[in-house]
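U., I forgot to send this yesterday:
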Amino acid sequence: MSNPVRYAIYYLPESDDPLWAFGSSVLGYDALTGAEPTPPSLPSIDSQGISNRTRGPRVYGFHATLKAPFRLRPETHEDDLLAAAGAFANAHEVVSIGEFVIETLDGFVALVPRCQSREVSAFGEACVRWFDSLRAPMTAEERAKRVLSPLSARETELLDRWGYPYVFDMFRFHMTLTGVLARHEAESIARELGELHAPLVGPRLLSSICVCVQAPGDRFRLLRRFPLTGSGIAGRG
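Result:
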């Protein structure tokens, strides 16, 4: 029987970064503490309305995906994953993300880098490759859920090889803030959240990776953060 616990490798802002409080408030869930902050009210929608529109991403917490949720192989244990994460962090240097902006992506609202650098893309690819040997293969049920969303031939190829369709050339570093919305509503919420986010604009660093865990029926929580200790900062001139 497969292990029902899932893990993921995420980028999470540091707990003292105001960006963390912002994203956790919008989602109504803090993946570090388990707290459920009240979402903000916007000119076009109240806090309950925001809460209704973040139900899906709330399960995952405020994050950017580096290695999408996966179950461990039967012969692999959590300590193996933590050891792999520590080794990865020791081998990689801090990466400059630059400034975030709020946009709509395929119908949902997200924070994205103003310009995604080659270094950020390369870091995401390295994470996918590094941890894949620990990942249990998808079940038929898991694959069926994925292909319910329209996938291109390339995305299907990536799904079948790596367990997730949005990697490598399909990778877009982003931090989801809502579920999929009608176009006009997504654009309105993106604009209003952008005004709330404006005071927080500034360059950010990808200075750690976070191993997050999801018990059956629960939300993802931070298990352990691993600071990147390689020398220098990639992508900074």
